[in-house]
Amino acid sequence: MKDIMIMNVKKIAFGAAVVFFANFASAQTVQDGINSIDSDKFAQAKTNFTDMIAKAPTAENYFYLGNTFLRQGEPDFAKATESFNKGLALDTKSYLNKIGLAAVKLGKGDKGAIAEIQKIVTDSREKDAEVMFRAAEALTLFEKNNSPDLAIQFLNKAIERAAKKEVPAHYYYTLGDAYRLKKIPGDAMSAYDKALPLAKNKASVYTRIGTLWMAAQQWKQAKESIDKAIATDATYAPAYKALAAYDIKYQENAKATQDLINYTKYADEDPYTQLEIAKLYFTNEDYANSKMILDKIFDKVDDPIKFKLRAYQLYADGKYAEAKQSMDSFVSQAEKSRVQPADQGLQGLIAAGLAKDEKDAAKKTALMTEAQQKVAIAKGAKDETLKWDMELAKIAGGGAVSQGSADIGPTNPTIEGLKQKVAANAQDTDSLFKLATAYQDAKNWNGAILTWQKMSTLLPDWAPAYYSQGYSYQQAGNNDAAKIAYEKFISTVKPADKEANKQTLAYAYFAVAYMNKDSDLAKAKDYVAKSLQLDPTYQDAVKLNGEINK
């Protein structure tokens, strides 16, 4: 899921930094908590700050706890607000907790909070570098609701004031974050470079630099920086999250799965961290692991995004009515700013799925209209969360192909044995190939489609898997999906491999031409001509060419 992936990369970049507060007797404990946040160990950080509050219930300690809820993968605004309010009850002048409450408003989309944060800094008379830092941090936390110009102004003042002693590395981290928001990567990199010699954990800086290169689509430099982070500290969890995003970008799904395993190992069991992992598994098209993790923590998280993730999973299983209920729950509970074009696209696909079995003609028409309109929103936004046309084609041809639909089809001992091998190792492409072929031999077309799709996920540049998907869809009677798969095969065959794939290419062009002859005559003529260029003796193409060029 693209929007989910962008969000995860952003969280890596804007993660909390290591902070040292010399004015607290329990400074080491404070640093332990902030270190935990920076390492995506949010449960550990919450325990740390809760213990601090039990020993010393100060306004500052309540701020640290509240800020942890803001910094986790999905902010928990309710718990953050509760903690900030407790801090203010102890000290009504606590500028930190006032900034915390304003940050909650900003995270929810209230842009008026920017002026509120500015007033808090003014009221503090800009005497405390930490207050200015936290104000700037709040102004860079949220991707869609921020004020990088004001953040840069506050940070420069904080750096100037702190320079009398020593500028903390996290001041420069956050300055880099602000420049990222302004899309000035050069200045962002300069800020991160200044943080590097000051940072106690350089893996944190290298990870930020890596995600900055990713944002600039400089993938070689991104990989080099992430590798440096892991070489510096092999237990630094966010580096593996960044590496997973990199591998997902390159469709290295098996590698991304291992990255997520490592991330899970070095992060902690905080439910919101696990929710992040479930989203990343879904982005990696590892639906089984995504569902397993979401099932485990579903009742432990309050964030409505859990309903969206559940809706995607239910849609993938063809459970359209249940998927609609989950999406309705997400849309009704989430802030409006969190509903993305991809979410509307998914609502459109769900509507198309419901229309398939709707008996009432008027309702069916209304659902199909909704489907086209909402999918158009996702496509218009150039969203690539799902292959929208292919998804519509799959629904039109009979609905989603799931493991359940494959399991009720024809089987035999060979299929069952290969299924066990694949279950034991989802990255075993040799067994997947044999299983897909066995499904085809048994005429279990749903099983063949599903297995060839898994092959394409693991080997996205291996063209034959798309051809086989097209053939299986065609045999299953889903010509719309077959056309898309054949076209993907045609576009994936490398120039150097065209001669070896001459016959299959000729058939693919012919099949698309034949399936378009009644709906797109110009395309049918073009494709049948290409088929004959590859094989002038192909009699079916010769016959079709004669029919459509009378």
UniProtKB/TrEMBL annotation:
Residues 1-27 form the signal peptide. Gene3D superfamilies: Tetratricopeptide repeat domain (1.25.40.10). Keywords: Repeat, Signal, TPR repeat. It holds the Pfam family TPR_8. InterPro entries: TPR-like_helical_dom_sf (IPR011990), TPR_rpt (IPR019734), Ycf3/AcsC/BcsC/TPR_MFPF (IPR051685). TPR repeats lie at residues 203-236. This is Tetratricopeptide repeat-like domain-containing protein. It comes from Chryseobacterium glaciei.
